[in-house]
Write a structure and sequence with these properties.
single chain, about 80 residues, mainly beta, SH3 type barrels
């Protein structure tokens, strides 16, 4: 029974403001030149939005709503819901 607890907890969605800073979020990012990456890094909240950067391209900034729903994957990163 105890081994089912983590699986049940992972099925629950959470909001962006509930995850730890420096978490990886799976999200394909693009600019005018093409694809930038597959992950963004959540750094902090800034009002109603967040401050995130593209993994491997820290100069590329993106903003998610603090209410964005996420789900923890089995691999340890978060996925957009």
């Amino acid at each position: 029974m105890l081994d089912l607890v983590p699986k049940i907890l992972k099925q629950n969605n959470m909001k962006l403001y509930q995850i730890p800073r420096e978490s990886r979020i799976k999200a394909e990012t693009f600019n005018d030149q093409g694809k930038l990456g597959d992950f963004i890094i959540f750094h902090k909240l800034d009002g109603a939005y967040s401050y995130c950067t593209v993994e491997g391209c820290p100069q590329e900034v993106c903003h998610l709503s603090v209410n964005q729903e996420l789900q923890l994957s089995d691999e340890g990163y978060y996925e957009l819901v």
